[in-house]
């Protein structure tokens, strides 16, 4: 809702996760691997984000068979705003539960994210990214 109010009403949580993975650089194949989805599903995600103006494709300079994906200026803006919103939400939650409990939650989530090489990528697959 907050992101929509800031000019990005079409974005969903799964888009944000995909855009985080795209911001790491690489090809559509890389994106699929990071998200735990097929190359076809990653390509469909990229096509949707490209249509909305958040990402762009370009031929790989390393391998002409590959297509690189990167964020557009609009995509970078959306990720920056979503990070700001997440920080605001974190502060609101800490106010509700207390800083000590909030730190416990954050520490637990950090452990889950480090528990294997998939971390956020595994969670993205659960969300349908």
Strand count, sense and barrel status of the largest sheet are: 2 strands, antiparallel
**Count of helical stretches:** 7
Mean pLDDT: 86
Side by side, the strands of the main sheet go 1-2
Please report the distance between the alpha carbons of the first and last residues: 19 Å
Strand content: 5-15%
Number of strands: 2
Radius of gyration: 16 Å
Summing up helix and strand content along with how strands pair, one would put the structural category as mainly alpha
- Level of helix content? 55-70%
CATH architecture verdict of one domain: Orthogonal Bundle
**Name of the CATH class of one domain:** Mainly Alpha
CATH superfamily of one domain: Winged helix-like DNA-binding domain superfamily/Winged helix DNA-binding domain
At the third CATH level, what is the topology name of one domain? Arc Repressor Mutant, subunit A
Enumerate the spans where pLDDT stays under 50 for 5 or more consecutive residues.
124-129
Task: Please state the overall shape, judged from the principal axes of the Cα atoms.
Answer: globular
Query: H/E order of the elements?
Result: HHHHEEHHH
Note the topology:
Elements: H1 2-5, H2 13-22, H3 28-35, H4 39-51, E1 55-59, E2 67-71, H5 73-97, H6 99-114, H7 120-126
Antiparallel strand pairs: 1-2
Describe the protein's architecture and organization.
- The structure is a single chain.
- The protein has 129 residues and is mainly alpha-helical.
- It has a domain at 2-87: Arc Repressor Mutant, subunit A, CATH 1.10.10.
- The chain is built from seven helices and two strands; from the N terminus they run H-H-H-H-E-E-H-H-H.
- Strand 1 (55-59) and strand 2 (67-71) form a beta hairpin.
- The longest helix is centred in the middle third of the chain and has 25 residues, at 73-97.
- Residues 124-129 have low confidence and may be disordered.
């Amino acid at each position: 809702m907050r992101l929509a109010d800031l000019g990005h009403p079409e974005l969903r949580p799964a888009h944000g996760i995909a855009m985080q993975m795209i911001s790491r650089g690489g090809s559509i194949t890389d994106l699929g691997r990071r998200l735990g989805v097929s190359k076809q599903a990653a390509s469909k995600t990229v096509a949707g984000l490209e249509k909305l103006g958040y990402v762009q494709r370009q031929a790989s300079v390393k391998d002409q068979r590959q297509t690189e994906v990167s964020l557009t200026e609009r995509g970078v803006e959306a990720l920056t705003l979503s990070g700001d919103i997440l920080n605001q939400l974190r502060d609101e939650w800490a106010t509700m539960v207390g800083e000590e409990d909030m730190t416990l939650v954050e520490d637990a989530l950090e452990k889950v994210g480090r528990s294997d090489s998939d971390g956020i990528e595994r969670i993205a697959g659960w969300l349908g990214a």
